[in-house]
Amino acid sequence: MVIVLMENRSFDHMLGYLSLPPFGRTDVDGQSADPAWLAKFANPDGGQNFQAFHNDDPYYLPPGFDPPHQREYVSGHLGVLNNGAYPMNGFVGAIPASVSTNPEHRRLVMGYFGANEAPINHFFAANFTICDQWFCAVPSGTQPNRLMAMSGSSVIESNATPLPSQPLIYDWLDDHKISWCVYHQGIPFFTMMLRWIPRILAGNNFRPFSRLKTDLESTPPSQLPQVIFVEPDYGDAPHFGRSTDDHAPSGISDGQEFLMQVYNAVTSSRSFWNRSLTYVGYDEHGGFFDHVSPPLIRTNPPATATYNPFLSLGPRTPAYVLSPFVKASSCIHETFDHTSVLKCVAEKFGSGSYSPDVDARPVASLSKALNFDSPISNPPPAPAMDAYLSRKPQSNPFEVTIPSGGTELQQAFHEGVAEMKRQGGTSHPVFGPLLQQVPT
Fold this sequence. Notes:
Elements (H helix, E strand, L loop, with lengths): L1 E5 L4 H5 L19 H6 L2 E3 L2 E3 L2 E2 L16 H8 L24 H4 L4 E2 L6 H9 L1 E3 L2 E2 L6 H10 L17 H7 L4 E5 L12 H6 L3 E3 L3 H7 L8 E5 L7 E2 L12 H14 L3 H4 L4 E5 L36 E4 L7 E3 L3 E2 L1 H11 L6 H5 L25 H5 L9 E2 L6 H15 L9 H4 L5
Parallel strand pairs: 1-10, 1-12, 4-5, 6-14, 7-15, 8-9, 8-10
Antiparallel strand pairs: 2-3, 6-13, 11-16, 12-13
């Protein structure tokens, strides 16, 4: 299994175009051109009503345009529950003035990309399986949703510094003697959970992304990690060059290039591909519009946490299932959330039980997306991206970007990086060149 978790985009924002002309996929619950539909989901803000619109620029968002998406803001995105459904009309209005007061900027959360702007999205959707009922596990931000995805529970309701320690899927895999590895472009996400830093620095479980394709091509499948996590370069962490995680205010072109590289790696070895399952998802919606009201599935805090329960899932996020064992150009309508991956891991590598909380969660396992009738043994080549990528902003790949630390996530990454330096990371062959440029 290969697990890729990107940042902060909604389903309608990235895949909703599939239900519109010229594609007109009736199997996808996406955008609509019907005036009544557009009016129903218009978002009021500053005396105007903003409807969903086609954004033809995948390269640019205004500097600093990162719509907040912590718990209190997501509540505003969803609107007031009425007859068991949320109106999904608060995405624009929830943007604070500190982010932007410009209506042309604020309306960008209502934009959606098409095939030309997101060619890898379209390639995945045309050749493999997507899920149009995949929701954030909780209606909150990055850290709680990644903890749900990588643990099945979250001790926090919003981002925190540092990221509190709790058991992760890494621990579950260790306990079940299942081999695993994280291939990372930059600073791994769980650097923020400080207890993982010794493993990140010293162990063989964390490897640079540049090794992924070579490892898959040169290592017999029986000797490869059984579960592989692939991480982009996070914009909220210190990084070289451009970030690739799709986190606003970045455009999506760098993320498209990263996903192309992941696909090329997992298909480079036929022996690996023919027994593989790759899931590509997004941790949460990032404040971008989606029209589907999340199911009222309750998430209680663990015994050590004190926050009020979450009463629903969060907004939909894009989800792609790339494998020989899916139906090409298909869409699965089962209700999934991030714990669906944990359910699948437990089915494949355990007794079928991940944890009581995950087992009892009323969402489907990722395995529901599989179809073994006609294996895709010859994966199609990724589309040519040269012209598309030539139009993206260029940067010096050796220039370091150090986020200001103005958000909880940036602060948590800064604290993790500082701890890496305290533990000798400046001499690390992979992390050293970056850490040497980050002020203490």
